[in-house]
Amino acid sequence: MNTVAITNKSLVVEPKGLDKLWSLKRRLEIPLSNVRGATFDPGANSEPKGLRAPGLAIPGKWAGTFNRDGEKSFWNVSKPGDTVVIELVNEHHDRLILTVNDPRVLVDKINAAIQDS
Amino acid sequence: MGRSRGFDEREVISQCAGAFLLTGYEGTSIDDLVHATGLHRGSLYKAFGSKRGLFLATLRQLETTGSGTHNPIDLLLVALLELAPRDAEVREMAASALAHFLKQDAATTLGARLLERAQIDNNSFPNDWKPT
Question: Which one of A115, B18, B63, B67 has the minimum C-beta count within 10 Å?
Answer without folding.
Answer: A115
